[in-house]
Amino acid sequence: MPLLVKDYSWTQTPSSICLTIPLKRANPRKVDVFATDEYLKVHFPPFLLEVFFSEAIDDDTSVAKIGNGVAVLTLRKKEDRMWEQLTIDDADKEILKSIRERAVLKAQEKSAADSKTRAEKKQEENKYTLEKMMKIEEGQRNNIEKLKADERERATAELEAWKLQQKREAEKEEARKNRQTQEQKIQLSYTSQLSPTKNTGTAKYQRKDCDKKNLAPLPAPRSPCTIKIQFTPRVFPTALRESRVPEEEEWLKKQADARRQTSTDVSALNDLKEDERNPDWLKEKGNKLFVTGNYLAAVNAYNLAIQLNRKIPALYLNRAACHIKLKNLHKAIEDSSQALDLLLPAVADNADARMKAYVRRGTAFCELELYAEGLQDYDAALKIDPYNQTVLSDAEKIRQFIQGSMPDHLAPEKNM
């Protein structure tokens, strides 16, 4: 049986009642307060306080503060006037039981109403969020369609300009041929007017009607001759490039195999046009988007090209540059490393691409403040091109920063 609390106190104003209940060293976290407009229960085991109000209160605006060994309840009255007493005196047990049951029923109804209100509010919020997402997606689709339409118009304009240029060149060629034919006709006409005559044992061509036509004689044809060419023997040593023939042949074979590889995932190609299924076309598209600063769209173009062909190093190399701009530094490191793996064996034809891969990975490391790893990649790039002044300058800045000889405001820039 719980112990009933009798030593509580209360005061009132015309608008509120202040009820003070000693907690008798009870844990504040274990104090349970339950209130309706005509009933109050405060339970902190093993103690229990029940109050059957003589008049109605507003339980929605009432507050309870628990701490320092007491519970202070501020109860708002529904009518602003002074009460003659706090509780019902000499009430029958059945009446008290009925009040208690009504309080429980009201609490259940209120809880159900609150749950329904919360559910409706959550549903409204979800509906609002969904509408916002649909509007955003619709705007993105409209932007994509606009970009596609602009690209189609630009491509159509370029095609028309190319056709016009070809037509003009054809007209020029036709005019040149007509002019050449006319000149040949004039030449033949002029030659037919010449007749061979002998004068003092020497063959000469005399002009007919020279005074009338004023035509100069043609020069005599050149006499044939033979020019002898002698080659000097090869005495210099074999060039270094010729000693890398096996590696270069392997690189060329690897490039040819990469060009022949295309994704067999038909589902990824269903929504693409014919030119959009070409990795080279997508790479050029991504390059143009990168130049305009639309790095996210460029990444999407490179992603689709990589799905079509995963063996082209330039795709990973260009996507790494986009990730650096977007501050996706770990992805930039992964793409640069993948490009370096594909750029093997190391030959002169892929030296420039390997240097770019090392510099971009080193830049990503420096952005992550991993300067030692970044310096290693810059040194690897300098082994490929030791005279690149930009890479030399950036590598020296990183080295000084690591050694602590460079002030923070002169530290290597993040966009190296």
From TrEMBL:
InterPro entries to which the protein is assigned, alphabetical: CS_dom, CS_DYX1C1, Dynein_assembly_factor_4, HSP20-like_chaperone, TPR-like_helical_dom_sf, TPR_rpt
Biased composition (Polar residues): 183-203
Listed GO MF terms: nuclear estrogen receptor binding
Tree of life domain: Eukaryota
Location relative to the cell: Cell projection, Neuron projection; Dynein axonemal particle; Nucleus
GO cellular component: dynein axonemal particle; extracellular region; neuron projection; nucleus
CS domain mapped to chain residues: 3-87
TPR repeat boundaries on the chain: 355-388
GO biological process, any: heart development
Region listing for Disordered, in residue ranges: 107-126, 169-221, 246-267
Biased composition (Basic and acidic residues): 169-182, 246-262
Keywords assigned: Cell projection, Cytoplasm, Neurogenesis, Nucleus, Repeat, TPR repeat
UniProt cross-references to Pfam families, sorted A to Z: CS
CDD domains hit by this protein: p23_DYX1C1_like
Protein name: Dynein axonemal assembly factor 4
Lineage, top ranks: Eukaryota, Metazoa, Chordata, Craniata, Vertebrata
